[in-house]
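Can't attach files on this board, so I'm pasting raw text. These are the components:
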Amino acid sequence: MNRRSVLLGAAAAGLAARLHAEPVFRLALTPVFLDNDAVVIDRLHAALAEGMQRPIELVQRRTYQDITGALLEGSVDAAWVCGFPFLQHQRELSLLGVPVWNGKPLYRSYLIVAPGDRAERLEDLRGAIHAFSDPDSNSGYLVTASDLARIGETPDDFFSRSFFTFGHRNVVRAVAAGLARSGSVDGYVWEVLSQVEPALTAGTRVIGRSELLGFPPFAGRQDRSLDADVRLFRETILNLHQTEAGRAALATLYLDRIDPGSVGLFDGIAARMAAIHWSP
Amino acid sequence: MLDRFRRIPISLRVSVLTALLMMVLGVLASQQVLTALSRVQDDRVRETALQHISGLSVALGPQVLRKDVWEVFDTLDRARAAHDGQRLTMTIVADTNGVILASTDPRRAPVDARIDRFVTDAVAPDAISITNASTLRVLAPLVYQGRPIGQILAEVDVSDLLAQRREASLYLLLGNGFGTMLLSLAGYFLAARILHPLDVLSAALNSGTGTLRPIPEAEIPRSDPEFSKLFTTFNAMADAVEARSDAERRLAERERFVSLGRLSSSLAHEINNPLGGLLNAADTLGKFSDRPDVVRRTAELLQRGLAHLRDVSRAILDENRLDRTGLPLRSEDFEDLKLLFEPEAHRSGQTIRWEIPAGQDFGPPAAPIRQVALNLLLNASAAAGPKGRLAVFARSGQGRFALTVQDNGPGLSERDLDRLIGEKPLPPGGGVGLRIVHDIVAALSGRIIHERSGGLTRITVEVPLRETG
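---
Top answer:
Structure tokens for the assembled complex are below.
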């Protein structure tokens, strides 16, 4: 062991000691994520830890309800949620940032079927078995439910059977395997999947695309929006594209950057919530 | 078939039988191997199916209770990816009513369809046995917390195991076939080597001459005590048979003289009787030399007497001449017989009727037939006794020559008939005349017919005539 390695070891030990001294910042991740990709989790964790200079814990939950619940009860400090639950709890939550994909903080919901299916629009799918992602997902439920509401139908009446897969990737799997005839899926996830798992999306065909809607945002609790760690987190995510680790994390997520955004981005979702007569 | 097999050389027969036994052994061994292989394969598939189903039962319990289509599918799909996905081609989970909740191939077994059409040929996991079908279906109840909550059906692809079985059968067939062939070949050479002495013995037995050929000393396998003893015994036997044949030949030769010997006293009389007359004639010639009429009559008497003596001695000479074998039998031969035999017959007061066509060439060789005729006549004369009546007939026709000698004696004894007609070896002792008739006729490919009717004994010898030329 030479002097240099001793010094490097001491420096590393000092950083570790400092990280352990700080309280852990917990970020809850939603199933918007490509949940099969450990690399995404690792890089995001690394970028946040570097930016905030404190230990980060990424908390994964199965459903949006679990994630939103964890944020509201304070067991996590921030969460990457969907626009639909964000609007559901708009009074308790504060917007920390909105990811920018393909140059816009917007995305669409896709309606998918198997490639050989003759259906060309939602109306052709009456009596089908349909796969939703999550009852609290905008793209994976609300868009299709509100489209049906606009023609006077409900999912239970329109489809012979519908079920939730609690993951956009699972919706693609269900339709590709033939378990469901059709599915409602996050357009961003479908497009990213078509690049990273083209064999999977090749088993599906998009027959419906919604209007552009607000991208799933990062949110924190309203009453903690002025806390130093929340502000540091907000600053870190808004500057991810300026650090190497941040760019690596954004690249694996196929995102450009994270913008401050505004609540107005989610007006389209609010309109769809009104269509199904949702009220807080 | 069996006779044809027996005609194959013994060394080949032994190796063919060995090969057959080895084939039977090979088939039995192959059967054992294939049975063991089937058992191992059945166990393997059973274990796979049981593991799959029991594992899924634990994981699927709560999801099936909730009828959570996605979770059931997700579990099945992940199990398929993690498990022996090549073997378990499809798994279906249905509720207690037989309605499908999910399957790994929803296009074949869609959600909400009935499981019925898949369960028709399904068996319980512990009853799995690979037959000729490349896909097996296994059906088991889905039990959670001690109560049935649904059914689980797995399709098991066993085509690779079937192929393995076919391959094993083929290799066993080829291996056994090749091994049997190789060992049969080796067996053939070994058997040929071991049984070579038998071939030598067989060749010595069938030397083509109808006699036994002694095995040369050099060919006796001294290293093999059993065969050595067998060969030595065989050689001793061959020598004994040869010695016996020699004795028989000598006896037959002598018999001709014996026949004549039996006639010698009559013939002596035949020569002696005229001699008295001839001497008287010579005396008369001396006394009455001056009387030309007496001389002439006496000279004629002398001439007749001497001519008779000449004929008798010529007949005796002819009977003994050995170079007559090639000459064909003619009517004159019977004249000789008459000359030789009649004095003897007359001495006993017997009468003989000769029915012989004059001036005829009968066809068969003269010497043996003369010997046959003389022997039969001597036998008939002895049987007929004093004042007996004898007859001799000879004729040729329809490709055959027939000679019949008839007498009014009491008939042939059993023993004499055996000598004349029987094929059995003769007990020692007794005359050889009839046996010589038997042997001569056999050598001429003829046959002997014995008849007894109206107080007459008739013995006919029939000999086929060779093509004239």
